[in-house]
Amino acid sequence: MVRWSVRGGGVIGPAPFLIAGVVNITPDSFYDGGRHYSLEAAAHHGLELLSQGAHILDLGGESTRPFSERVEADTEMDRVMPVLQKILKARPEATISVDTYKASVAARCLEAGACIINDISACRFDPQLLDVLVQYKPGYVLMHTLDRPESMQTDPRYRDVTREILSFFETHLARLVQAGIPESHIVLDPGIGFGKNLEHNLEIMRNMECFHILGRPLYVGLSYKSLWSGLLEVELEGRGMPTQVGTALMAAKQVGIHRVHDVADTANTLKIVENICS
């Protein structure tokens, strides 16, 4: 069972699995190409994902796909804040996560009602983010990546990718807890597709159980990622089925939190796993 403590004393779960529905509020999303970029479209999409069974909405105002360009904090805030406010006005009980590594964006969104920060950087891109996390104590996604999105896929190399990510988690988990973030607020994301080639991604997935030794829930995003094209030679529209197969396999390995685009299909996938593997 997954239990995740978040800002304000809230707890998500206990539940066999949690679904984080992705709401990309960018003009260059790899998945939808900006289809949900406007306020109305993004808010409507988020509310629809909640109705389909999402436990969390993960709002993102800066694309972090490989080779994407950075955006300024004000631009990111202008994209995310109106959507966050509109969703919470319609569904005050909604659990909102903000996908950001910027301290200023995180602080303002937490003040506005978000309760989770999903950070690709482990507080390395903006060190002030750690101060924000200590102050607000949100739920926090500690993710592994080699470098920033614009350079992370330039010849990524590891001697042992699983051991190196495990060491990364041990180091940064200890640093966060020592700084004052309760361990119960932290979940671990190995960062599929972030500074990894196809074989790295597959090796991580094969060995996912290794990360359970740290005692924290695992948070994994496989949804529509390019690894499926690399493995199966399918285009974007052909990545839905392998996403569901991969999600089922990760759930069978006790990955508790799944960040996805297709919430309804994922809810069905996880129900099958729950009833067969429990």
From TrEMBL:
EC nos: 2.5.1.15
InterPro entries: DHP_synth-like, DHP_synth_dom, Dihydropteroate_synth-like_sf, Pterin-binding_dom
CC annotations in GO: cytosol
GO molecular function, one term: metal ion binding
Coiled coil location: none
SUPFAM superfamilies given in the database record: Dihydropteroate synthetase-like
Reaction catalysis annotation: (7,8-dihydropterin-6-yl)methyl diphosphate + 4-aminobenzoate = 7,8-dihydropteroate + diphosphate
Domain of life: Bacteria
Keywords: Folate biosynthesis, Magnesium, Metal-binding, Transferase
Pathway: Cofactor biosynthesis; tetrahydrofolate biosynthesis; 7,8-dihydrofolate from 2-amino-4-hydroxy-6-hydroxymethyl-7,8-dihydropteridine diphosphate and 4-aminobenzoate: step 1/2
Boundaries of every Pterin-binding domain copy: 17-271
Co-factor requirement: Mg(2+)
GO BP field: folic acid biosynthetic process; tetrahydrofolate biosynthetic process
Role noted for this protein: Catalyzes the condensation of para-aminobenzoate (pABA) with 6-hydroxymethyl-7,8-dihydropterin diphosphate (DHPt-PP) to form 7,8-dihydropteroate (H2Pte), the immediate precursor of folate derivatives.
Family of the protein in this entry: Belongs to the DHPS family.
This protein's name: Dihydropteroate synthase
